Amino acid sequence: MINSLLRYGYPLVMLVGVNGTAVCLAASGAPRVLLVGVVLVAIAVSFGAERLIPYQRDWNRPRHDRLRDALHGLVNESLILLSVAIIPILAAARGPHTWWPTSWPFWAQVVVSIVVADFGITVVHMASHRFGWMWRLHAVHHSVTRCYGLNGLMKHPVHQTLEMFGGVVPLIALGIPTSVASALAVCVAVQLLMQHSNADYRVGPMRYVLALNAGHRFHHLKHPGDGDVNFGLFTLVWDHLAGTFSYDRSRRFTSSDLGIAAKPDYPASYPRQLVTPFRPAGSCGPMGPLPRKTWRSRLTTSAASESRS
């Protein structure tokens, strides 16, 4: 009974409670330091859930990666906050005209920002599995062999910048207010925690719509082609449209399923992960796009497995 409450209650606390608090604070013009506090609370809640309802208990055990992941998180979260801080400067360069729906309720404006950012970031993410130079950078993220909350920000800062470019530039062009962007920044942090969480939580049929951990584990499969699925940050809508959605509720994952098959010895330290993409030995080949026929085959297989379970 307790476990069921935790499994169904945890996503509500994070997606509704934490995000809702951030939206209310941003709408009221509260100091941004309070939003940073909201993110810290989200991290604490995430870690607690991973220990109370773990998907894999051994994924809660550090593998000499906590400091590295904390550094990735600190640097990349700082980049997200920086992108929010420079919005007024970029808005001034854009000019006074704006297409942003400022007359809408604040929460609806945040939803618009999520939809736009989700599309832009997903496109960059898909490209990162297609083009070799982008895959070199993105491989840092795919080198993990356990999924837990901090994995979401375990990215090369250059790749993090590319993803932010894809998500933020359209928003700036539309004229997003800084307050909405601040709320979006918290929602991104919460989403990354949820998407890579080791908590065995439940969202029911929404697992086919929201880009959460149950679906995202398929994205971290280590063999070329297998992980070219479920690219979305907030939703799986674009994956459904692109034919890159994959899910099988009977599938269980262990560390042997994760990582990069072509480079199982990918450097694990933070300094080496920063420089490896720029070295000749840092290439491990782009995962490459799957033929659409293969995508359809996967969808059929997943649907059949779902009906059997």
Describe the structure.
This protein is mainly α and 309 residues long. The protein has one domain. The protein is built from twelve helices and no strands. Helix 1 (2-27) runs antiparallel to helix 8. The chain is globular and about 50 Å long. The relative contact order is 0.15. This is Sterol desaturase/sphingolipid hydroxylase (Fatty acid hydroxylase superfamily). GO terms for molecular function: iron ion binding; oxidoreductase activity. Residues 297-309 have a biased composition (Polar residues). Residues 111-244 form the Fatty acid hydroxylase domain. InterPro entries: Fatty_acid_hydroxylase, Sterol_Desaturase_Related.
Shape: globular
What is the averaged pLDDT score? 90
Please report the number of helical segments: 12
Sketch the major β-sheet: none
What is Rg?
19 Å
Secondary-structure class = mainly alpha
H/E series, N to C? Answer: HHHHHHHHHHHH
Layout: helices, strands, pairs:
Elements lengths: L1 H26 L4 H21 L13 H20 L1 H8 L11 H23 L3 H11 L14 H18 L3 H18 L17 H7 L17 H6 L27 H6 L16 H17 L1
Helix pairs in contact: 1-2, 1-8, 2-8, 3-7, 3-8, 5-7, 5-8
Short description:
By secondary structure, this protein is mostly helical.
Task: List descriptors.
single chain, 309 residues, mainly alpha
